[in-house]
Model the fold of this input.
Amino acid sequence: MKRTFRIGGVHPNDNKISKNAAIEVFPAVETAYISMAQHLGAPANPVVAVGDKVKVGQVIGEPNGFISGYVHSSVSGTVKAVEPRADIAGNPVMNVVIAVEGDEWCEEIDRSTDIVRECSLTCEEILARIKNCGVVGMGGASFPTHVKLNPPKDKKAVALILNGTECEPYITSDDRIMRERPVEILIGAEIMKKVLGVDKCYVGIEENKPEAIASMSAAAEKFDGIEVVVLKKKYPQGGEKQLIDAIMHRQVPSGALPIDVGAVVQNVATSLAVYEAVQKNKPVIDNSVTVSGHCMASQHNYLVRVGTPISKILEVAGGLPENAAKVVSGGPMMGKAVVNLEAATVKANGSFLIMTAEETVRKRESNCIRCGKCADACPMGLEPYLLNKLARVGGLYDELEKERIFDCIECGCCLYTCPSNIPLLDLIRINKAEVMKIMRSRPKK
Amino acid sequence: MNKLIVSPSPHVHGKQSTNSIMMDVVIALLPATLVSVYAHGLNALMLALVGVVSCVLIEWLIQKFIFKNTVGWCGSAAAVTGLLLALNLPPTAPWWLVVVGSIVAIGIAKMTFGGLGQNIFNPAIVGRVFLLISFPVLMTSWDASGSWFAVDAFSGATPLGAVKEGLANGLTLSQITADNMSFSEQFFFSTGGSAGELSSLALLVGFIYLLCRKVVKVTIPLTIIATVFVMCGIFHLVNPELYTNPVFNVFQGGLLLGAFFMATDYVTSPMSTKGQIIFGVGIGVITVLIRYFGAYPEGVSFAILIMNCVVPLINKYCKPRRFGEAK
Done:
């Protein structure tokens, strides 16, 4: 029987309409806008100045603290500006703006397509390469990978889990890399296994990607201790805690980390980035991005250089149709609506989704009929209707904390399923932030 | 240049709406309604129509002139109450009886609490119980002479009523023989009882439709029926001359109608599975106690109302299993 997580979940139409579009190399841009905040944690410090010549793969931002990361130039050319620019949400972020001239790469990067399996580096050297190449979680959270692969000494990993679930509707970029580059992904996994000191690696893939399952399974036969696990299609299976539950049948307790149950989860795209960093010395300068939507004339998966303006991607993909009403970065369940189309891509951008008003407009809210569907759908076992009621009273933060609002993973299942269209997640999000602020302000025991 | 919408996630929504759910319930009640029209003719059809129209109209009037707000008002929810109320009356009842019931169900049981989603008690049952107490004769006369098709014209007490009356007169069950029915008679069609109670099969078809449409879950009806079956089984084994058999108790009276369509009302039933099991067992136990030991031959309505009272308490103490608490 196919496995899945045990609590809640919903089944949105998966709409994988771009699954048969092979990854195309996106054409070169004239100007690249490279953000210094491409990872969770402190933004990087720019280390180039206006007028500097840079090559592809050259460091242009250095980490600023433990949880931070390197940023590299994705193009070759001249630095035109180092200035704050609006990101996709409209917030100012420091950018290095580069006028593109040719495509000259740093010499130490291996640009051949030969697959290199042999790795003689020590664990410390591997971690250093991952850090120096600016690898972050490519599933969307963009947590620095070298930090995640280096858990505290008192905690022991048991298994590495590769996340190939791609449970969000529409997105197919992970599906494509699993079909096109399975061996490289698994070499990345082998390297991470070595660093973590674990014998076992599971690759979780949902059943709606039979081609990816086939290609990854075939590739896995040549590796020791790597098992492809076919999972039922259910959202949010790609949630870290849900995936661990589905594959290892272990639930990460509230407030704990996956490593506390012996698991380390990495996205398949991250694994590919680890391979390129360690075996090819190639920093994260590009990533695969799905551009999809029923209103678009054609569906695409592109290999896009970091720093490409979203407007440019949409233009190349066929242009925004008349009836396009929303551009979402990420999937329709957890993605963010793009405020600023002139913003450029970052490492963890996996998809841009174009939706019409009919597909996405929220309907009018009506009375709660206490159907309990939100509680049935919640993958964390919370009661969204109750959190909503408490939130609307206002100020009941102690009660909200008792009802474990801080466990919410903001997957959107409650709002998706609510027949009365109550903005459950909106209210939970606002109040969760408030409750967590209160919790952090308490003196630690 | 396109003007783009910016809103928080999720950006898509599931297909179900309050309106689609309520319309599904109406559809699920149609087989039972059709059976009552088949058995009792125009009067049964009239009751169903008057029930739906009066409930919808009363709710709209209250929304319009007292709440002064008809935005987001859900007429199909009132229609469900109206249809359920009609199915809970004798098929030969006069039209004004269902109007009075509608006024109580919607006006008192639902709207005084604030309308849709706010009521503590199931409105249709409050309407029925009000009529049962206020018009006991009309509510228990089962004259089927108005039938179009003259299907085994039946008049007199329901089987449950006959048992109660016989036992009160000192007879034993083998002398009464009212519970001595064939299974097919009980399952497919029997002529005694409220409009909606005639065919267990019609009710089951409607309920399966609701299950397929993912409108209700099987938990509450299953626990009610299982509880009644087990409890009646034990009593029947102890003294078959005094206590009717479990199959008879499951298929007779309003048990299936109540278990499938009234105890599963979202608003007045618990949220968590654990809570729903407690709720179902409670309804089953109280139903059996009333049927065996109470003054009324039938107890499903009272059982549901009593358990409705404790739903807030059940919700407070029966939390769903939180993530991370599994073994």
Q: What stands out?
A: The two ends of chain B are 55 Å apart (CA to CA). Residues 145-155 of chain B have pLDDT under 50 and may be disordered. The longest helix of chain B spans residues 42-67.
